[in-house]
Each structure stands twice: as structure tokens, then as C-alpha cells.
Amino acid sequence: MSKCRACREPAIIDLPRHNANFCDVHFRQLVRRQVEKAIDDFAMLRPGDRVLVAVSGGKDSLAAWDLLVELGYEADGFYVGLGIGEYSEASREHAARFAHDRRLRLLTVDLRDEFGYDVPTASRATRRPACSSCGLSKRHLFDRAALDGGYDALVTGHNLDDEAAVLFGNTLRWDVDYLARQLPVLASRDGLPRKVKPLVRLTERETAAWCVVRGIDYAVDECPMSAGNRHLRYKEALNEIEAHSPGSKAAFYLNFLDNMAPLLADRRDASVATVGECTQCGSPTTGDRCAFCRLVETASQHEPVPVAMARRR
Asked: Which of 91, 156, 242, 289 fits a 20 to 30 Å CA distance from 1?
């Protein structure tokens, strides 16, 4: 049986990228330190900050919420009902149970109830991938909830695997505008809250293990409408590299932040300067109306589409 590097007690997890094994106690310590380091290194949060966590019911968002509460932050959760059949129902239940068991505050909004559409219907109405309308809807509603609630920051559960995969895709396309904005912290500006990603130093496997040792019951199933998503294929490619060269994902992403991101600051500032306000809701936009308001207008007028039919597009 493998031994913990720190105390020589039986290990519960091996982490090749750290070239070490850890027991329950020292694994928890490692995870907390990685999150604290991310918060400190990137000046994400200040002591006493009140934050809103974008919650999906999955391992990463619940782990982020749990860790921030454990580190002493006042953290509420916000869940968006996407209307993706049983998947959304199960996700909502996991988020609600987590909040109830820990006496935390969970805010919820349902796309169909509040705006007259759901993700399957939006996908059919716009003739675009479900991930497009899903991401647009969540970003808008998370931003609005954080601003309206007066929170100091909006927290998302993006982990190292997520960020490395997005960076990989943006680099393959040399999408400089997206590369310029791929930071673990995005400063607040008119119409947008401060956004932070405290899990960027943790892998998916590590956040899943955190949930196990903390007794967090999370939604395991992948979204049924995400099949064929390029992001998932990029993750698979990077996992293959990581298996042969542990630590590659961390080196790829963290070295980008250290060496390349500063060189893109001018491009980042230029993109911010060209943004105006939506004439309908006041959100930042480069046109007269923001993409969310246009989506609501189109999707809310369409006949509801079952998940199974939306997947056949």
C-alpha cells in the first residue's frame, strides 16, 4: 500500500503531477493550499468579500462553494434551470441538497418560467449548438445576479482541465481576442461583475476526490446535449499528454499566464473600450441589443422542443 508523502500513513490518492501520494488529512490540506495560492497569487478575493458561486450541481461548482465557505468567505449559490429534462432536474436536486444540508443560501432562476424558453428550444430556434445558447444564458444571468445582489465577485468552478482545454482550443485557432481574456480573474466594469476562478490550480480528478472526502453528493452525468463538443475532445487530447508527461497541463496553462498573458494586455484593453450598453436591458454589448435579449426574443416564440428532438439536429 502506498504511503502519504507527508506523514507515511496509508494514502488515499496518488497525484503523479505532484510525484506524491497523500492521506485524507494531507490531501485536504493540499487542496486548500492550492485554492488559497490561486486566490493570493491572482488577487482574486479579499478577506470579508461576499461572493456568488455559479452552481450547476456538479463536482466543480459544489467543491468551489464548499472550499470558499471553509476558507471563511460569505458565499451564496446561484443555479439556472436550463430545462434539459432529467439532467436539469437531477442537477437542481444536487445543488439544493448541498445548500440545505449546509444551511447555505441558494438562489435559483428557471429559463422557461422567467424567459419563456429552455436550452433545447433555443438550440432549435437559433439553429446553433446547445452549448452556445446555454453558455450565453448562464453568463448573462450569473452576471446580472451578481450585480443586482451587490456581490464583490462572481465565482465559477472552472478547473485546470477546463482552462487548459480552452487555452488549447484558442491556441489552435490563434484566437487572440479570446486568448487575451483567458485569465483567472476578470476585473469588474460597467455592467459586468468581477469574475474569479479559484479552482484553476486543481484538476478535475482532484475536485472529484475533494467531493468524496468531504461527503459531497454531486451530479455525475454529463449533459446529454454536449455530445460532440470540441472542448471535450481537447480535454481527451490533453489527458493523453498528461498521462505520458505528468504536470503538462499545469505547465501549459500557468506558463501562459506568466509569459504570454501580459503581452496581450493591450488587446484586452482595446476590446473593453469598444463595448456599449444594450438598449433593452443595459448589459454590455457591441451592438444595439445584447445577444441575450436577441436570444430571448427568438427562442421564446418557438414551440417547446423536447431534449431528444433537439439532439437530432
From this structure: 242
Which pTM value belongs to this model? 0.94
Mean pLDDT (the chain) is 95
pLDDT band at 313 (very low <50, low <70, confident <90, very high): very low
Residue 170 has pLDDT above 50, yes or no: yes
Q: Which region holds residue 29: left if phi is over 0, alpha if psi is between -120 and 50, else beta?
A: alpha
Query: Which residue range forms the structural domain that includes residue 83?
Result: 42-220+229-310
> What is the predicted pLDDT for the residue at 267?
85
Buried b (16+ CB within 10 A) or exposed e, 104-138: bebeebebbeebebbbbbbbbbbeebbbebbebbb
DSSP state of 22: E
Residue 148 belongs to some domain of the structure: yes
Instruction: Domain count for the chain, please give it.
Output: 1
172: closest CA among 125, 231, 250? 231
Pull the grid cell for residue 277: 450598453
Closest CA to 295 of 125, 165, 141, 67: 125
pLDDT single digits (tens) 185-227? 999 988 899 999 999 999 999 999 999 999 999 999 999 998 7
User: What is the reported pLDDT for 312?
Assistant: 47
The b/e string for 141-179 (b: 16+ C-beta within 10 A; e otherwise) is bbbbbbbeeebbbbbbbbbbbbbbbbbbebbeeeeeeeb
Query: What CATH code is carried by the domain that includes residue 299?
Result: 3.40.50.620
Task: Please report whether residue 133 resides in a domain.
Answer: yes
For residue 110, what is the enclosing H or E element? strand 106-110
